[in-house]
Predict the 3D structure of the following.
Amino acid sequence: MRKVQIMTNVLIFCLLAVNHALAYEIVLDNYALGASASASDIGYGWLPPRAVDGNSGTGYHSTENDAIDHWLEVDLGQPRTFQRIEVLNRAGYLTRLNGAKVVALDSSRNIVFTSDPITGGPLVAQYDGDFAGVRYLRVEHAGPILTVMELRALTIYKTDFLPPDSNLTQFGAIAEQSTTGAGRPASIAIDGVLGDFSHTDETTPDNWWKVTLAEEFYIDKVIIYNRVSCCSERLLNQVLTVIDDDGNEVFRYKFTDPSILGPGSVHTFEMPKPTYARYVKVGLENGQPNGQASNDNYVVALEEVKVIGGSFQGPWNPTPENGAVEVDVDQNLSWSPGEDPNGVLPGTTGYFVYFGTDPRAVFVRDPSVAKGFQAPSATTFDPGTLQRDTTYYWAVDQRLIDDANSVPSMVWKFTTPLTLPIIDQQPTDAVTIAGGYAKFTISATNPLGNGLAYAWHKVGSGTILSTTETLELIDVDSGDVGEYVCDVSNVYTISSNTAELRLAKPVVRWKFDETSGKTAADSSGNGIDGALGSGFTDNEWVADGGRTGQPGDNAIYFPGNSNATVTALNVDLTTKPVKNIFLGASSWTINLWLKIPTTTGVSMIGGFGDNVFVEGSGLNDRYYNTWDGTIEFNLGEDGFWETPFTAGQWQMWSLTYDSMSDTLTYYRDRVAIATKILSLIDVTENAFKLGVGDVAWSDTEIPLKATIDDFSVWDEALGPFELGMLEKGYGCTQDIPGDADGNCKIDLADLSTLAAGWLDCGLVPDCLE
């Protein structure tokens, strides 16, 4: 039991100082959490963002390549100041990190800090210091493999007194258990991560698990997380005991109700106030087995145990209660004094109140939110008239013995009445092409209960473009590009986040509308003309364009010449912008029309990469090829494979990559047929080839015999509407039942298409699909 005697102030101060000789570190911020992450290369699909997702069970993994100087980089978004860098290593492979260095850089990429090479295979490589103005954080490794489970940039707050809502298992606590089974030690149950569990053996009666806190603390509650994956019934018959420093049992509970012990069940036990204790134990007693159906099972397995409390109880019982809403703007604040086992803390000289809208400032007791000193008898505070639609945070320090020590409360919060519209769904960015269509949507709720008014406008313009939840822009051109915002009003007005409209531009576009010559003109304006081989003749320019009905819509025909250099289209991309599109941080679209007469054999259609047609080509290559009646799009070791094509029929093939979501989408005739989540590495090759049929990596390759039309690369991930415009010259905002020719309306042309289907199929024309 906490030894605080009501004696002289001097003696009390000494005793408090002895009891609080420990200094505790509280992590306030991890600036790397959720930040943008990139890497030199990627192995086994372990993407860079996994090293900053807060999950220590997953991470980033490079390829296994001695020739690559591997690196992982996190962009913190802006210059940051913090006190600790942590690199969490991969358990079981700890020596892989040996030799790696941690580098911190400012916004101009000047080096702020470089660590010594990591040695000894630590589970966590930790660096403490005053890291100021850091924008980029890197782990660099010249070794064969770089694996980082988590990279953290932490701000640390040091205090002698823990507030009473701390998880005390995270401050120097030690977990132990009577036996260990399944290779799972007691420490797993206090690692702060759900997903794994501690485990004793099955055969030892009266097995137990126990955590010893760093010192005797005030305990507010104990939370036990039951195992998720299996055997949750084992918690039955187990006993939770809370024990003070002298070995006295101050709380006991036995699990006797099997109906509450489901997988992942969470059990919270409020302690009598005030409870001070040092030990928390869970275990079996008197030879009784757990609740598993098999006989004599004595396993104690715990997913996680949290012990919530602090150095002292501190001020408590706040008014308004913590988390209250609709609090009157004239509300006064009040609290009850903190207590110890002997009553009210002795020597209280008064209270300091901290109050504001920034929870971090209140937590660290920043002077900007300090509201002055209250006398010992005054456990109330008048904050003045409050603002509506605002969440406030506040805390109270109970000052002891001529202000030399204080006992903190936790940080409380409350919210005043809501009057502003609540935006439930913000508008998101949109991308289209010239002549295309864009749509922004917002969803909002009125806390006052009546209707809402909407006013969409372009940022910087007062012209109202829409007064509904939706803004639609049709026949978009460069003048429409920019940011848009919606003002939502009841009696009061709130503005949405801005949403950007971007106009996708072709980086290269060969329409193949020529009728002679050996040059395929680039219509994008970037001057990336394609040079055809010496054996190419005017006969290969054919009046057979993919977009039927378009005047002058020619195409290019590759007749299946066995010499790939004779007819191939070649482009040197060394200084061309199309090369820069295929970076891991860029979104893009590849689009082309194909008509292939046969479904037999393997033929290379075209691709990016110096070695794209060589056995063992590099990971960076992107290329199309045919494979016995299917079209494949390959991205090195990954991609989309074996998608059937229709022989002798024009079909449009599109691949898009959204770098924000790492999503690849594969389309055939503007209909999405497959998606993948895949973080792409950079393309470094400087060449593009189209119309080559000779491939070195297949025993059944044949020269490409096909007609190709309108090949283009775009600098954004296009959607079905934009692809519809590339397919037919117009797009549809939605699929229309009965629109057989896909022109976004029902007309006589649909009847003609349906009739043709009936004649061709002899059936209701499902074949039109």
In short: Residues 737-769 form one domain. The chain has six helices and 51 strands.
